What does this fold into?
Amino acid sequence: MSLDPIKMAGKLMKAVQYNAYGGGPDGLQHVEVPVPTPNKDEVLLRVEAASLNPFDWKVQKGMLRPFLPSKFPHIPASDVAGEVIEVGPGAKNFKVGDKIVAMTNPRNGGGLAEFAVTKESLTVARPPGVSAANVVGLPVAGLTAHQALTQSAGIKLDGSDKKANILITAASGGVGHYAVQLAKLGNAHVTATCGARNINLVKRLGADEVLDYKTPDGAALKSPSGRKYDAVIHCATGIPWSTFEPNLSPTGKVIDITPAPSSLITFALKKLTFSKKQLVPLILFPKGENLLYLVNLVKEGKLKTVIDSKYPLAKAEGAWAKSIDGHATGKIIVEP
It folds into this structure.
């Protein structure tokens, strides 16, 4: 079904927003607001699925103030998939009726709504037969895993490079479960940590050895086969540098996907002392071509999204609370 773009102007849509920092799930409000209008190089889509990321509730908590959000009220979520119903001026790559997956501008969000606008540069076609829920986790979590492995760790995902030893912490989470699969495409030996209930899942995703993070060896990040890690894709929190350091190869890197002030200090000290072992904070720079690459992997059956849970937009508070809890297995999806 395609909606007439002429009739969308001035129409209202259901959305979930918040008006101030803090408040958690109780701070979310169900509202009716005008359907957004696509500007230059943007498309308007009818949202079939949105995906939550820790980034979303961290913005609400005020952890990125004064930069984010750009203004209140704010409709959160940047991962969206759906159907194009209108194209803005200058948008050339998509037409009404196209199925797509995209990332909205994180400053503006917009995903927890019936309609959203996205820049054409961060919008890619969704292949026939691939559901919205199976690709909507890719824009933030998938691209973070891809950037951590290819740019920060230097892994070639075609498997043409020498075999690297990679550790992935919180490997059953949103970024972690994609990182395990991508690292295996890159011919890496993957050690992973997760909770006991997810060990078999993480093995099925391809990890060579999996540690329960609550056991002594898991807490120490010790490889069962005695390997030293060339790179750590660090998706957990609260692990000090002193735990990583003895497990790293001489030039090993810890790529921290959620850098806190303490990790930025470690990063600076390692640089200042010319240490060969480095802590590398990761800030996502999303690229459309990388998103297209990941979508094609899904189409080819080489990458899959583990879905923790699905919530209707009317129960978005439940999804929000689940994300804050921090123990989701894979992705949390909201469907209008």
In short: The first helix runs from residue 5 to 8. The radius of gyration is 20 Å.
